[in-house]
Amino acid sequence: MADSYLVEPDVKFVKQLKAMGGDTLKKCYQCATCSVVCPISPEERPFPRKEMIAAQWGLKDKLVGNMDVWLCHQCNDCSTYCPRGARPGDVLNAVRGMSITEYAWPSWLGRIVQDWRFFWLLLAIPVAFFLVLLGATGYLKIPDGEIEFAKFFPTLLVDIVFVPLATLWLPVTFGIGLSRFISAIHKNAVAEGKAKRKDVNVPDFLKSLVCTVPTVLGHSKFSQCTANKDRYVPHLLVFYSFIGLFVVTNAFFVALYILQVPGPYAQWNPFKILANVSAIALLVGVIMMIRNRIGNKDNASKTSYFDWYLLLLVLGLVLTGGLSELTRLAHLTTVAYPIYFAHLVFVFCLFAYLPYSKLAHLVYRTVAMAYSRYAGREPCE
Ligand code: SF4
Ligand code: SF4
Question: Is the alpha carbon torsion for 183, 189, 190, 195 positive or negative?
């Protein structure tokens, strides 16, 4: 006999989903075409049709802690073939945004990062902070002589700001958000009979996490897209350029504090080459993503503020980074330092707001994919 379920629609949740890009959810008439065409939906309890029904009814608890929502890679094949233009890919994207806000800590920061009205505030926070920091340490001026960014914003100050962000802020905020998220998806999985134990078995879950890593590195789920195959390459470019920049940042940190070799480094330095290649790949990837979203020939998806926030942030980051370097090499003192200042503002925004932005997808989706394997929904490849 089918399970009975007491429906308690959350109208506010439906309104929030619509505001976050899922405005077409009411158009769905449940034909199930989307679940059939989705290249990565499993045969047992396929998505996204069941999520569309839950979204129409405002069943928040069936959605925000639902691992299937995170197995979706937003290729939008389903939206391309949906006969009603209900754009299930965008609805699931909106649910993921709501999910991040739901588990975020502190929750108020999660809410303002996803609200376009506060975009100026997110930029103003690091601008004000840096101005006060530079003013208080006597560095609030354009230095004379050869351009060296460390003469304007000393490396020690940069590290005082960014090292705690990377080593304390990100682990703590992500740690709290992810532990809430795992508890929620586990609770739902137990309720639906997909998991039996009351608590998550941590060693087994970690094994599932390890076997998920090759799938993430190869973007093998994303590569299964058919109608929107062109989204695969830019995602791969952005993904690996961030890894490249992460390696470079750590290498320069070691060079400075352990090997005692301060910058600027020669252009032929292998890590400098990696930095430049990664920056170019990031620029190309983000431009391709923006072009895809603006082009959007079949109107299969709509770009929400949640998407634009990250795209514009990454574009600002890579443009100011590249222009800092070029204006330094061209000895344009009066523009090089302000551009470098802007670059640090974008870097701050990327780090400080990462757990609440669309980039957090990478972490949440990896965890959900690992949980899916842990719960036996997908085999380890
Ligand atoms: S979202 Fe579209 S394809 Fe999917 S069930 Fe609804 S109407 Fe059908
Ligand atoms: S966006 Fe792609 S992965 Fe997500 S449900 Fe639709 S077809 Fe499947």
Answer: negative
| pLDDT the model gives residue 266 | 85
Least reliable range by pLDDT among 93-107, 261-275, 311-325: 261-275
**Cα(300) to centroid of ligand 1, in Å?**
13
The rounded distance, in Å, linking the Cα atoms of 338 and 152 is 10
Share of the chain above pLDDT 70, in %: 97
Ligand in nearest proximity to the CA of 47: 2
pTM, full prediction: 0.88
- Please provide the size of the chain in residues: 381
Cis ω for the linkage preceding 106 (within 30 of 0): yes
Query: Are the CB atoms for 196 and 190 separated by under 8 Å?
Result: yes
Measured in Å, residue 195 CA sits from the centre of ligand 1 at 28
Mutate to test the pocket of ligand 1, among 35, 82, 95, 299 (most ligand atoms within 8 A of CB): 82
Asked if 77 contacts 226 with a C-beta cutoff of 8 angstroms, the reply is yes
60-to-48, 89, 226, 293 alpha-carbon distances in Å: 15, 17, 30, 28
Residue-wise pLDDT tens digits, 231-270 = 888 999 999 999 999 999 889 888 888 888 887 788 889 9
91 lines ligand 2 (CB under 6 A): no
| Both tokens assigned to 163 | 């090292």
Domain boundaries along the sequence of the chain: 11-103, 107-374
* Residue 78 near residue 37, CB atoms below 8 Å: yes
Say if ligand 2 is within 6 A of residue 35 CB.
no
Residues 104 and 107: their CA atoms lie apart, in Å, by: 5
For 18, which DSSP code? I
Segment 11-31, tens digit of pLDDT: 899 999 999 889 999 999 999
Cα of 76 vs its chain's centroid, Å: 17
Q: Is the CB of 87 under 6 A from ligand 1?
A: no
**Ligand 1 in contact with 25 (CB < 6 A)?**
no
Residue 26: nearest ligand to its CA?
A: 1
Provide the CATH number for the domain formed by 11-103 in this structure: 1.10.1060.10
